[in-house]
Q: What sequence folds into this?
């Protein structure tokens, strides 16, 4: 059994979006408190790098669609919300294919 699954990647994507949301809140609404902003920024950066690498590998293994891996890798650094939305869309497409096959 592979450790990389669609649902696990989706969960990490939502965690990444949550971390990024709190980074934005700290940076803009809470007047940039340190070290919180630094820690959240570092978590966001490391999560983006990790998600990018794992999603590219998952696309090659046909765990997720190629377009989703590109969305996470390209747009994830600027806004991981795009990746989370992509996982929701891909999950719904997969459910529809399973239902009507």
A:
């Amino acid at each position: 059994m592979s450790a990389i699954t669609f649902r696990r990647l989706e969960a990490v994507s939502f965690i990444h979006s949550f971390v990024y949301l709190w980074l934005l809140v700290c940076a803009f609404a809470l007047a940039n408190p340190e070290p919180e902003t630094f820690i959240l920024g570092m978590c966001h950066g490391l999560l983006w790098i990790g998600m990018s690498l794992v999603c590219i590998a998952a696309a090659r293994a046909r765990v997720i669609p190629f377009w989703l891996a590109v969305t996470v890798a390209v747009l994830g650094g600027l806004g991981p919300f795009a990746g989370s939305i992509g996982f929701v869309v891909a999950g719904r497409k997969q459910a529809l294919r399973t239902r009507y096959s």
